[in-house]
Design brief:
103 residues; alpha+beta; four-stranded antiparallel beta sheet; 4 strands
């Protein structure tokens, strides 16, 4: 009796699978850490927002109560990331056209 032993065409050895698994886990962990650092510097929703008025920035109040930002490519409001270390720095926060709400 003659047995024909056929070798499979595509085989991935056990050690090769472990290497691939370690590489994929390392990539996933790196992406998770990078995502955590990227979202760390996002602005908090409860911080003050400002609009530019005559070379200064004026506080505008609460969004939805005191003002709205309508669709536009302009910058509606700004925020101050660090009022102690950089009191003159204001960065864009909301996009749109600023419109106060009449009470």
């Amino acid at each position: 009796m003659v047995f024909a032993i056929r070798e499979p065409g595509l085989t991935i050895k056990h050690l090769d699978m472990k290497k691939i698994k370690i590489i994929l886990n390392a990539i996933a962990i790196t992406i998770a850490i990078a995502g955590a650092f990227a979202t760390r510097y996002c602005m908090q929703e409860n911080s003050s927002q400002y609009i530019p008025v005559n070379d200064t920035f004026k506080p505008v109040g609460d969004f939805g109560i005191d003002y709205k930002c309508y669709d536009s490519k302009n910058i509606c409001t700004y925020y101050q990331p660090d009022s102690v270390a950089r009191p003159e720095e204001f960065l864009p926060y909301r996009k749109g056209q600023y419109a106060p709400i009449n009470k």
